Amino acid sequence: MEIKVNKCVIRRTIPFVTSQASQDTVNAVIIQISDGEHMGVGETCPRPHINGETLDSSFNQAVAWAQSIEVGPSITPFSFDPGYTQLGSSTAMGIESALFDLYSRQIGVPLHRLMNDQQREIVSYAGFIGANVKGQKLQKGLHRYADYDFVRMKLSGDLNDDFERINMFRETLPSVSLWIDVNQAWDETVYDRASELDGVYMIEQPFSVGRESLNNKLRDHAHVMLDESVQSLEDMHRFKDTMDAVNLKLLKLGHYSAVHESVMQAKEAGLQTYCGGTTMTDIAAAYARHLEFAVPSLDFFTTGKPRASVLKEPISGSLGYSMEPLALSPQDVGLGVELYEDALARCTREYFVRRL
Question: Which has the least CB within 10 A, 35, 52, 128, 135?
Answer without folding.
Answer: 135
